[in-house]
Structures are given as C-alpha cells and as structure tokens.
Automatic annotation (TrEMBL):
Region annotated Disordered, chain positions: 1-41
PANTHER family: FUNK1 11 (PTHR38248:SF2), FUNK1 6 (PTHR38248)
InterPro entries: Kinase-like_dom_sf (IPR011009), Pkinase_fungal (IPR040976), Tyr_kinase_AS (IPR008266)
Residue span(s) of domain Fungal-type protein kinase: 177-545
Protein name as annotated: Fungal-type protein kinase domain-containing protein
C-alpha cells in the first residue's frame, strides 16, 4: 500500500507528458471502440481550441458566439490565479474563487458546445458538466470527522441550468480539489486528499476509483485512487499556456467520457423513482461467466462499507430479488432475503486459473453440505456469484484493476496487473442474513455464535480441505432464528485456500486482521499454516470481547479509557514488531496469559469467571496440550545452548546428548505437525463450554 503519492517514481516518460497526458489518453483514446472514449476524443480537441484564448493568452476572452456575460466575469477572476509565478501571493482561501471560476469557465464552454445544433457531439445525452460546489472550505454533512474540504466537484446534466450548489455531501461529490499556496506543499495536499477520498469510497456504494486534484500555487496535479494504488500526474502549470491547455482538456474529457472511466460502477444504479438501489449480480454457474448473465437485486440497507482508501473495498448489502412495485416511503427499507458481498479481491488475471476464487470456494462448500449435513452446520450458502462485467464499446469486459488503471500509466498498469497486485471485482449473493458480531448481547450468545462458526470451520476443513485463514470480528455473523435462538455464521472466504492442493500458499503469507492474527501469520514464518492459526484467532477474539464487554461498543469513551491501561491494547496499537512481542510475552505460559489477559476480563459481566475458564481451556489445548511434550508448549522458540554446542564441537560424534542442547525448537512448528489432533481437542473445549454456559444460566434463572 502506498501511503504517499510520488509521481516521479511512476512517471519516466518525459517531464511535460507524464500521467496527466496518459490519463487524458485513458479518457480519450481513439484506439478503443468505447463510444464514450471516442466521444471524448472527438470533442476535446475542438472544445479545447474553442477556449484556447485562455490557454494561449491571459488577455480578454472573445465571445465565441456564446453570449454569456458570466464568461467575462469568470475570466477576470481566473487571471488572478493563472498569472501566478512561483508561490501564490495571498491567502489559501483567496485561491478558491479563481480556481472555481476556471472550472466553471470550462463547463460553460462545454455546455454551449453540447447545446449547439450546428456542431453536434455523438452520444451527448450521456455527457455531463463538471462544476465546483458553490461553498468552499466546508465540512460535508456526511463526514465522519471534522476535516473540511477546499473545493468539491460535482456533475450535472449538460442541458441543466448552471446554478450554485452549496455544501455537497461526500455522497454527491465527483472529486475534490485541495489547494495550497506554496508549490512545495504538495505532500501535505496529498495527505488531505487521501482522507477525503477515503470518505468518498465509504459513502458512494458504486464507486470503483476516484479522480481528485491538488493545486499548489499554479501547479495542478491529477490524482487517481484505485483499489491497489494511488498515483499523481506531473504538475500542469496554469501559469503557462501548455499547463492551462492540459488542465482544460482534462476537464473537458471528464465531461465527455464514459461514466465508468470516472470511477462509477455501471452495474449498480440508484432508482430515484423507487428510492432504492438496483444491482446486477453475475451468474457464472452455467458458462463460467462468458455470457455475462446476471440476476438483478434491489437494496436499501448496507451492513458493510468500503471505509479504507486501498484494499478490497468490501461492501455488503441486504437485498431482495423482488423489484418494488411503488416508490418507498422516506426512510423505508426493503425486506431483505439475501446478502450481497461486493469486493475487489486478489485474483489471477484468468478467472479459470484462479484457484483461490471465493465464488469457487463457496460452490465447493455448497456441494459438500447441500445433501450431507447431519450435524445441521450453519454454512454460507451461495446463490449466484462471479466476476463483475459490463459493456464497453459493445464488448463485455471484466472489471479488474487492469480495467481501472488502463491508460493511466503503462508502468502502473503492468504493476497492478502482476500477480501480487491484481484484483478482480467479485460479487456474491448469499443466503442466511446475519448481524455483526458486536451485536451479541450476552456472553452466552457470544459462546453460541463462536461455537457454531468453529463447528462450521472444522467441518469445512474436514470435508472440503479448505482453510479459512481470516477469523476476525468482521467474519463471524450473528444469525437470530425465528424461534429466538442465536447461531453463528462464518463468512468471507477471500483468503481461503485448498490445503490439499496449495502447498506453496500454506507458508509465509500474511492474511487476516492484526489484533486477531496468529503469531505465525504476523511473523510470516515458514511454519505451515494450519487450522491452529484460525483457532488462535478465536482465542484472541474471545479475549477481546470478554475484555470490552458484551452489548457495548469498543468505541465508547469508557471502554477506550479502560483499554488504554490494559495489556491487550498492545495487540492492536503499535508497530508490527511491538504487536508480535506483546503476543509472544502474553502467551508464553498459562500464568502470563492469565496475569496479562484473562485476569483483566470485564468483571462487570456476571459470566466473566466462566469466560476466563473457557479462555484458559482453549489456551491449554492450543499452547500447552498434554498430548505433546512440554518442550512444544508456549509461544517462545527454545534456542540452542551455546556452551553445550561449543563443547560438542570438541567431542566425538557418538557423545550422548539431550536434543534440547543442540537443536532450536519452534513450538509452532512442532504443533503444526499435530494440528488435526489438537483441532479435535479445541472443538471439544468449545462445545463443552457452550453446554456449561447454558446450564449455568438456566440454574441462575431458577435461583432468582
């Protein structure tokens, strides 16, 4: 993940071309058959020429037959910015108006050209105007923090009247421009743009990538944010005619190009006449997705948003196959029958070769359990799913990182198309609707949910040879049944592998969520990954919730205050090295585990004692299993005795010696060789505890 935009590292063509030129070719590449792309290519050159007075000379504009007096007003403001040499002479706030006027000036020319009958543009009904929000330096109403954006950009239909649009939400924005007075403040501008873009991804369900801008004095840069990388163009200096023309053409192309090239997902659309979303879900069961067959669903509620700048951008929607027959009331929700998972997951470029495709994994699980589930295991039931595809220029294309970054920069495209960074847009429809794990109300519910999830985990490993590898608070759902009982559902098999086939992938790869990742996982050790790593994650999950309490939120101030002084906070805060060191120390023995973790469980919970016993039993089965030699207990590697090793070098090879003196012992390595036996012990512990907790609570009710 790049935390800093560095255009020079990705831009090795020529100083005046750069990613800005490459980005324009992405939007206006005549070599493709995409109608929107051709439309941009044919219209941008002539439109740029029509505003060439701005690009060539900062003098007064010609009327060009538009007859709009506002052009002259805009142009007067623009000169204050375009005549900048070096750093901007004035306040940052004073830059907002001339920059907004520049963007509006271009939009008025675009509007005039698209409205002209004498020089028609093909497909202009799909075109748009890119305009600045009227209010600058403001906090969007749907922001999750107090940051303020400098200039928001939105779009509107080209034939609508241009009028002020104030305080647009992140949900409404097409992009954001961050301004700075000094040319050397570009890094600060990038950092702020990162945060704004993250919130755009969070609020817009159909956003695949984002275009944004920085304007440091007269240097404008285009920034492109996708699931894998963020890149910036070389600066377009509006103090020069070449720089002004480049910025103008970019704004024009944003007005004329296809919607998908601005980052929108054409397979997901909001139906304003019904007040709900419509989403196309690929149905790859019959032909592996070659035909582009889809099933349409409708949703109003989201249970997971893409609130990170990079990564899978996972979103989950509660949906139904039934299209509403009339407009929903304000705030009314559709009754959901399925959950839809939408994510950009790591994949192989050729779908048929992608053995770690979650869709294939879920179909394998479905085949194993559909007619053979005597233990009533609650497992994720896939309905349909596959890679998202959409039409571009009459051709069906897969939505991948290559599709998103195509044309931005050749070096970048090669990078995101490599096996290590390539992502495919997958969409999966599943039955069994659940709630987040944080919604459990009691310790009894928590244990029941965890037990169900790990029963499922054990059965999937046993029957399907599939290892989950990402047990966390986000991947176990609470399912409330009609009879009032509570069950647990294990979800999200993005990181799962087939352990009977993926011999290379069971070592060394880091997967999961930091606070709940096993030590093997955190250290990327060469120890083979087994189900014991997932069981270790369950232990961490239990300890975390038993510490913060049930029926509460870890974001609450009193919980945060308690966590600050507890050792368990070290599992989440700090560097990777400090997290590893903390877990090793806390798990090195039963006593240290109790002293640092179990003894700090939330004592306000009447079941804290039972939860503590549960945690200690899990620890003993996993880290101090009586079936294994004590040398293989704990979390610390046993090192060779250096004195004994030096002595043995002077002795004959036949000298008898204890193995402990001559060989390093990694307890994780030794336990991984016995993972099947240990897993059975762990499953027994979790099932016994579920029964014990239920009996204890029933007895308590009788005594009351």
């Amino acid at each position: 993940m790049e935390r800093r935009l560095n255009p020079k590292s990705l831009n090795k063509d020529k100083a005046d071309g750069g990613i800005a030129t490459r980005t324009r070719s992405r939007i206006a590449n005549t070599s493709t058959s995409d109608a929107g792309t051709k439309r941009a290519a044919s219209g941008s050159a002539s439109l740029a020429q029509s505003v060439s007075n701005l690009a060539i000379s900062p003098g007064e504009p010609t009327q060009l037959g538009i007859g709009d007096a506002q052009l002259a007003t805009d142009f007067g403001k623009i000169k204050r910015w375009t005549q900048t040499k070096g750093n901007y002479n004035g306040s940052e706030r004073a830059m907002y108006d001339p920059i907004s006027s520049f963007i509006t000036y271009v939009a008025r020319h675009v509007k005039a050209r698209l409205g002209s009958s004498s020089d028609p543009v093909d497909g202009k009904d799909e075109c748009r105007l890119i305009l600045p929000v009227d209010i600058t330096d403001y906090k969007p109403e749907d922001a999750d923090d107090d940051t303020r954006i400098d200039i928001g950009l939105f779009d509107m239909e080209y034939n609508a009247a241009i009028k002020p649009y104030g305080r647009a939400s992140y949900y409404r924005l097409r992009g954001i421009l961050e301004a700075k007075m000094r040319k050397d403040e570009v890094d600060n501008a990038f950092v702020q743009l990162y945060e704004y873009t993250r919130q755009m991804f969070a609020e817009q369900h159909n956003l695949r990538s984002v275009l944004g801008f920085t304007a440091c004095a007269g240097d404008v840069r285009l920034c492109h944010f996708g699931p894998s990388k963020a890149v910036s163009s070389e600066p377009m200096d509006v103090g020069t005619r070449e720089g002004r023309r480049a910025f103008i053409e970019l704004l024009i192309n944003m007005s004329l190009c296809d919607n998908s090239q601005l980052g929108r997902d054409p397979t997901m659309r909001y139906l304003s006449e019904l007040r709900c979303w419509q989403i196309d879900c690929p149905d790859d069961d019959d032909d592996d997705g070659r035909s582009g067959k889809v099933a349409q669903y409708y949703f109003t509620n989201t249970i997971c948003i893409a609130d990170r700048l990079f990564g899978r951008h996972t979103r989950c929607f509660l949906a139904t196959e039934s299209r509403p027959t009339k407009q929903l009331e304000e705030g009314q929700s559709l009754e959901a029958t399925v959950v839809i998972k939408d994510a950009f997951a790591f994949a192989k470029a050729i779908g048929s070769e992608d053995d770690r495709d979650e869709v294939k994994t879920l179909k394998k699980i479905r085949e194993a359990f559909h007619d053979n589930n005597p233990d009533d295991i609650l497992y994720p039931k896939i309905v349909v799913g596959g890679r998202v595809k959409f039409k571009r220029g009459g051709q069906l294309v897969e939505d991948t990182t290559s599709t998103i970054y195509e044309g931005v920069n050749d070096e970048l495209l090669a990078m995101v198309s490599s096996d290590s960074l390539f992502r495919a847009h997958r969409r999966i429809v599943m039955k069994s609707i659940g709630e987040p794990l944080r919604t459990v109300k009691t310790a009894k519910e928590f244990v029941a949910v965890i037990c169900d999830a790990m029963q499922c985990h054990y059965a999937i490993v046993d029957k399907c040879k599939i290892l989950h590898r990402d047990i966390s608070n986000n991947n176990i759902l609470v399912v409330r049944m009609e009879d009032g009982t509570v069950r647990g559902l294990l979800i999200d098999f993005d990181c799962a592998i087939d352990i009977s086939r993926d011999k290379k992938d069971v070592r060394g790869e880091m997967t999961g969520t930091f606070p709940f990742m096993s030590l093997n996982n955190l250290t990327c050790s060469n120890v083979k990954r087994t189900s014991l790593d997932d069981w270790e994650s369950v232990l961490y999950l239990l300890c975390w919730y038993a510490t913060i309490g049930f029926g509460t939120s870890e974001d609450r101030s009193e919980v945060q205050a308690r966590l600050k002084v507890l050792p368990i906070a070290q599992w989440r805060n700090g560097t990777l090295v400090t997290i590893i060191d903390a877990k090793r120390m806390h798990l090195c023995s039963l006593n240290t585990f109790y002293a640092n973790i179990v003894g700090r469980f939330d004592q306000r919970d009447t079941n804290s004692e039972h939860l503590g016993v549960f945690a200690l039993k899990l620890y003993k089965a996993l880290f101090a299993n009586g079936k294994l030699d004590s040398r293989y207990h704990g979390s610390e590697e046993k090192k060779t005795n250096p004195i004994m090793a030096a002595f043995l070098k002077t002795q004959p090879p036949s000298t008898p010696v204890d193995d402990d003196s001559t060989n390093d012992i990694d307890p994780f390595e030794m336990r991984s060789q016995e993972w099947e036996k240990i897993s059975k012990d762990l499953l027994s512990v979790i099932n016994e505890t579920k029964v014990e907790m239920a009996d204890w609570e029933d007895t308590a009710k009788q005594l009351q």
